């Protein structure tokens, strides 16, 4: 095994992959199921949902439905787990795949802000939560975690990259007076600062002051942060919520680069295997498992497949010079099909792309009409008329739009805190920025109830249901919906 | 690496157990659960055990996929399920959990507050159990005792002068090997038999039989919790009674009259021949719609119960399943005659929803 590792690592470096030191551990299926249930970490805070995930994985394995070949943790050094019962050729493939991931973790911009010592951090979180449980009882802490987890997707997926919150401090609390423009001459005052102008200015200042008193000043996308800062939490509750938020931010970039990252790792395992590492005897097993990774059951979108196909397409286009103004402007089908400037820029290009893109920008920039046709992509939706899922469109624009929508904000509804003192009663007002798809209502109600338990005052959510503005409300005992104008 | 997850897993099972308990009434009256029964486990769909999030309604959202098909074509099975959502494919399945029948019985007992059954005839039936007791110089390799083998080899080498403290190498020989041995310990065990009897005359319809089927499943489950090796026997009757297998029991429909005494006679015979009261816990259950052929036959039934059946059984249960055709007289007669007896349980079962309460009436006696 050691020899395989040294060999694969050497190939990976020769191709220019740049990764953290990677520690491989070999685990039995029970252990690998456990680690997978914990999201890849050997040590997490205690919670039943990990037990549930473990139950699911173990059953999947027992019934032969699924099997986890590998797992990588974005950490420095990175940790990768291999399944003990894999054949040597599998381990080789998996290692090559792993180096692809680690290279991606290390270089892609989305990961620039993630904690590379997350392994320690997670263990640290686990200890803290355990301590609370010892002190306060398992169920009490667990129940709070349930509520917190219910909100784990209410973070600002952009925030690590944007500095959005204004620095506070210099704002005085006393009302400001409009002074108008400066003039030394008393008699000019009325000309330079006519009363209407001064009034107008005063009004603006007052409005600004009013806005500043509102909490939050502008809609806060990081709902968890808002709750941390403003909800009446006990110290341990605040700490637990902060832990959940921290972990949510850690996992977010992995979700936002899934297609790229899996595609990248797949691209590299197949490149390394087919060009270097594979022996003739291993070919059949390799082909079998590789095709397993890329299988699209009829109509399914497999991120491994879509990702690797896009990477190959980019490489091919930049090798042949199928980009830029000349190519875009070319109208002749024949000419376009035979287009090959022999630029050989493919490798260079994909390395550049793996650095500066995430799934949204990746798809936006590189999913072309030709690609869409070649891969036979389509959109589907539920037909109320036929009570079944149906193929909707093969139109390139629609496909791309849908795909981008699914990836934007991590495929989650965009929800922000609008007001922490709604109707001047200390209630919480959340706003769902409706972009064409309604919320799943039963889930929304349950989630609202969880928010209420944290906010400890009634909570409200503005959304749109069947095209009509709706204010959903939970006051601690009852749910109610009210139609409103939007 | 020890499996830390076990704790979380146990916690998850606890929560599932709580959900099952809350929904038990619903499960009890549903027959489909029986269809999900494996050998020792039963698969139960547990509603809402996931953590709610704000998320999109799937049906409006749709997604992107790859493959054949023209607009308007239906997606094939499994398509469009958990696709898209780039890695967020949480799946929209109901959670299904396996619960052992033992655990299910436990839950049933807790929820219905059933008393533990005190088996009669304890220590009468004896089975054996293996117990590791000693060490022997021969045995299967899988039972080799490494420490004792080592000691033996050391002892031999010292005795023969082959041991040197400068080079402390111990090489066990064939005859040094030691193995664990076992002996068979007798284990007292109590056995039980359930004798199900059912009226299959024309007035007992499918609905009535479904009630009996569900109820007998839960009775089995509960009794199995208390007795190793529970046996079941099935008797059907109209004007005559005969013993059948389980399959036939639930699927036979006859026309004609009803003579309950015929079943009770056969029941007594079965007890007398196969299940001596000294060694067996016997549970006759009889289900009918309460119509008997004649008052004479009912008198005969009571007689049979008093003399032949009740003295030899833990508990005799009669369940009267309501049917539009039955007069429901039989239970009244039983109430007046044998009703007050300690080991008789009578229950009227109006419909599936009444099963829950009926089980409690039967098993609540702790017999």
UniProtKB/TrEMBL annotation, chain B:
<dbReference type="Pfam" id="PF04285">
    <property type="entry name" value="DUF444"/>
</dbReference>
<protein>
    <recommendedName>
        <fullName>DUF444 family protein</fullName>
    </recommendedName>
</protein>
<feature type="compositionally biased region" description="Gly residues">
    <location>
        <begin position="79"/>
        <end position="89"/>
    </location>
</feature>
<dbReference type="InterPro" id="IPR006698">
    <property type="entry name" value="UPF0229"/>
</dbReference>
<feature type="region of interest" description="Disordered">
    <location>
        <begin position="60"/>
        <end position="90"/>
    </location>
</feature>
């Amino acid at each position: 095994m050691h020899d395989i590792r040294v060999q694969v690592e050497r190939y990976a470096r020769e191709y220019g992959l740049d990764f953290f030191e990677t520690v491989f551990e070999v685990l039995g299926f029970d252990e690998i199921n456990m680690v997978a249930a914990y999201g890849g970490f050997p040590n997490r805070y205690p919670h039943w949902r990990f037990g549930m995930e473990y139950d699911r994985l173990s059953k999947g394995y027992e019934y032969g439905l699924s099997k986890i070949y590998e797992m990588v943790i974005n950490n420095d050094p990175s940790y990768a787990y291999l399944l003990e019962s894999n054949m040597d050729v599998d381990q080789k493939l998996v290692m090559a795949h792993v180096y692809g991931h680690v290279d991606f973790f290390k270089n892609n911009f989305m990961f620039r802000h993630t904690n590379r010592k997350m392994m320690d951090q997670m263990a640290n979180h686990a200890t803290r939560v355990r301590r609370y449980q010892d002190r306060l009882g398992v169920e009490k802490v667990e129940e709070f975690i349930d509520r917190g987890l219910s909100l784990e997707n209410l973070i600002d997926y952009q925030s690590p990259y944007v500095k959005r919150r204004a620095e506070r401090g210099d704002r005085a609390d006393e009302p400001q007076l409009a002074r108008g423009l400066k003039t030394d001459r008393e008699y000019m005052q009325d000309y330079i600062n006519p009363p209407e102008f001064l009034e107008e200015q005063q009004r603006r200042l007052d409005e600004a002051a009013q806005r500043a008193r509102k909490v939050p000043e502008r809609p806060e996308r990081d709902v968890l942060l808002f709750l941390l800062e403003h909800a009446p939490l006990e110290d341990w509750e605040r700490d637990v919520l902060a832990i959940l938020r921290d972990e949510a931010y850690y996992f977010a970039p992995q979700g936002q680069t899934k297609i790229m990252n899996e595609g990248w790792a797949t691209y590299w395992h197949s490149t390394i295997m087919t060009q270097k590492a594979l022996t003739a005897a291993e070919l059949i097993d390799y082909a079998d498992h590789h095709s397993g990774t890329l299988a699209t059951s009829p109509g399914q979108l497999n991120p491994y497949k879509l990702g690797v196909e896009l990477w190959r397409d980019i490489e091919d286009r930049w090798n042949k010079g199928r980009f830029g103004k000349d190519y875009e402007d070319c109208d002749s089908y024949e000419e376009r099909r035979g287009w090959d400037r022999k630029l050989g820029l493919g490798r260079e290009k994909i390395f550049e792309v793996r650095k500066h893109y995430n799934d949204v920008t990746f798809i936006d920039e590189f999913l072309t009409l030709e690609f869409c046709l070649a891969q036979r992509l389509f959109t589907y939706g539920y037909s109320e008329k036929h009570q079944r899922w149906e193929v909707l469109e093969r139109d390139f624009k629609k496909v791309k739009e849908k795909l981008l929508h699914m990836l934007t904000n991590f495929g989650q509804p965009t929800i922000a805190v609008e007001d922490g003192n709604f109707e001047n009663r200390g209630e919480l007002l959340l706003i769902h920025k409706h972009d064409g798809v309604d919320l799943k209502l039963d889930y929304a109600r349950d989630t609202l109830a969880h928010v209420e338990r944290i906010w400890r005052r009634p909570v409200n959510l503005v959304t749109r249901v069947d095209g009509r503005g709706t204010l959903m409300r939970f006051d601690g005992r009852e749910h109610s919906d009210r139609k409103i104008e939007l | 690496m020890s499996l830390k997850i076990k704790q979380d897993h146990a916690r998850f099972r606890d929560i599932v157990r709580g959900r099952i308990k809350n929904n038990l009434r619903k499960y009890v009256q549903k027959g489909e659960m029986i269809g999900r029964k494996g050998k020792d486990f039963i698969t139960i769909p547990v509603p809402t055990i996931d953590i709610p999030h704000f998320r999109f309604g799937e049906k409006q959202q749709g997604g992107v996929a790859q493959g054949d098909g023209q607009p308007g074509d239906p997606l094939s099975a499994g398509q469009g399920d958990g696709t898209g959502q780039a890695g967020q494919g949480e799946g929209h399945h109901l959670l299904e959990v396996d619960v052992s029948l033992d655990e299910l019985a436990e839950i049933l007992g807790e929820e219905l507050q059933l008393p533990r059954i005190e088996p009669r005839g304890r220590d009468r039936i004896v089975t054996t159990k293996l117990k590791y007791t000693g060490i022997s110089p021969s045995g299967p390799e899988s039972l080799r005792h490494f420490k004792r083998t080592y000691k033996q080899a050391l002892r031999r080498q010292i005795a023969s002068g082959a041991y040197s403290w400068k080079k402390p190498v111990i090489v066990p020989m064939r005859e040094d090997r030691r193995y664990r041995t076992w002996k068979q310990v007798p284990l007292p065990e109590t056995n039980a038999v359930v004798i199900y009897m059912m009226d299959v005359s024309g007035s007992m319809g499918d609905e009535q039989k479904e009630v009996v089927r569900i109820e007998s499943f839960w009775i089995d489950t509960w009794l199995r919790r208390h007795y190793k090796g529970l046996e079941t026997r099935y008797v059907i009757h109209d004007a005559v009674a005969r013993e059948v297998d389980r399959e036939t029991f639930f699927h036979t429909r006859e026309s004609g009259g009803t003579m309950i005494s015929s079943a009770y006679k056969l029941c007594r015979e079965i007890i007398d021949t196969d299940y001596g009261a000294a060694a067996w816990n016997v549970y006759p259950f009889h289900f009918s719609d309460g119509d008997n052929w004649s008052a004479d036959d009912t008198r005969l039934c009571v007689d049979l119960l008093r003399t032949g059946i009740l003295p030899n059984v833990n508990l005799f249960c009669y369940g009267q399943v309501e049917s539009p055709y039955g007069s429901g007289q039989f239970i009244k007669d039983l109430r007046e005659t044998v009703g007050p007896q300690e080991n008789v349980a009578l229950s009227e079962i109006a419909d599936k929803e009444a099963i829950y309460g009926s089980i409690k009436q039967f098993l609540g006696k702790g017999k």
